[in-house]
Amino acid sequence: MDKSRSSDAWSLRGLIPDNHPRRESLIVREKLVEALENGILVAQGLIAHGRGECFDYLIGEKTQSFAELAEKVAVAMLLLAKNPVISVNGNMAALVPKEIVELAREVNAKVEVNLFYRSEERVKAIAEELKKNGAEKVLTEGDATIPELFSERRKVSKEGMYSADVVLLAMEDGDRTQALVNMGKKVIAIDLNPLSRTSLSATVTIVDNVIRAFPNMIRFAREMKEVRREEIKKLIDQFDNKKNLSESLKFISSRLIQLSEDL
Question: What is the pTM (predicted TM-score) of this model?
């Protein structure tokens, strides 16, 4: 690894000035580059991040009301689930490893590594990163198969995603999201693109950046533990994912109009 790129707890002083207007974005990019060098991420993950970052610009790089609602509903589903699982890929492990572990602990979810570009080396590297951030157990076995799929992502853990009733995932390919839904699972997707196949197929779509979504969900999980089960279920029952996605598109549309008028 190029030591000059070492983040020193992601302060990156000397590389990125504290007052740089794109500081947070550049720090995220450095995390991804380091993850690439450490075998956690593949180059295709950088492309996926860049596509998502474009949509993040469109929503103002903030958690908007439609995303906050979806995050609350997602937490409600995880809290009521019998066997919730958080599916982790390279981008997630690079950006929010500690937060993945914290959320899993708060909602009593299992953590499973699942990759499109799967190799035993990458699976091991991601599992080690999660354990370094406090995970006691990480599922890595591909001892079960998701019907309909032919990529490496068809391989899942029988103890984890295969038997899960609720799955939380991010930066996911649409065919696997649909396949999981077809298996009768409730799928929570974190996806900045409200028009992606994943967003349109998921049970709950969170149009937000993972670096904001996970901390928000951790906070909601702690708050909602004091809420009665009936109230949590009511929140889920009243949620309409298509309507919420529509709100995100309306927001983007109105924001673009406003930005054009402000030029």
Answer: 0.91
